[in-house]
Automatic annotation (TrEMBL):
Gene: mdcC
Family label: Belongs to the MdcC family.
Keyword Membrane part of the UniProt annotation: no
Compartments reported by the entry: Cytoplasm
Modified residues (O-(phosphoribosyl dephospho-coenzyme A)serine): S28
InterPro entries: Mal_deCO2ase/Cit_lyase_ACP, Malonate_deCO2ase_dsu
Record keywords, A-Z: Cytoplasm, Phosphoprotein
Post-translational modification: Covalently binds the prosthetic group of malonate decarboxylase.
Transmembrane segments: none
Organism (species): Bradyrhizobium barranii
Protein name as annotated: Malonate decarboxylase acyl carrier protein
Source organism, top-level taxon: Bacteria
Entry-linked Pfam families: ACP (PF06857)
Reported function: Subunit of malonate decarboxylase, it is an acyl carrier protein to which acetyl and malonyl thioester residues are bound via a 2'-(5''-phosphoribosyl)-3'-dephospho-CoA prosthetic group and turn over during the catalytic mechanism.
Predominant location category: cytoplasm
Length: 105
């Protein structure tokens, strides 16, 4: 298992008040993403556990693009990867932010 960590400055804080959200399922070709509101409002911390070794530069590009495009400030994001492609990673991250911004039920 390869572990990667990123601490990025986020231009926008995540909206909503949900304390956490989870999307996806770890299975062949997919991933699980847990988002928690525990980071400073201008920071996004992303921790990744992946079985696919040697893709650090790809992960770096995907998470930097995500933080630049989405409201990710204030979030700690934990990713358990089962070999997902970059477009699936971007989709799950977007779904996670949307879910954490939804009103609590």
């Amino acid at each position: 298992m390869e572990k990667l960590s990123f601490r990025l400055t986020a231009p926008r804080c995540a909206g909503g008040t949900r304390p956490q959200a989870i999307v996806g399922v770890v299975a062949s070709g997919n991933l699980e993403v847990l988002l928690e509101r525990v980071s400073p409002a201008d920071m996004c911390t992303i921790d990744i556990a992946t079985a696919a070794h040697g893709f650090g530069t790809v992960w770096d590009a995907v998470v930097r693009d995500f933080v630049a495009r989405r409201s990710a400030g204030g979030l700690r994001i934990s990713i358990n990867d089962g070999g997902a492609r970059p477009d699936t990673v971007a989709l799950r991250l977007a779904q996670g932010v949307r879910k954490i911004e939804e009103p609590e039920q």
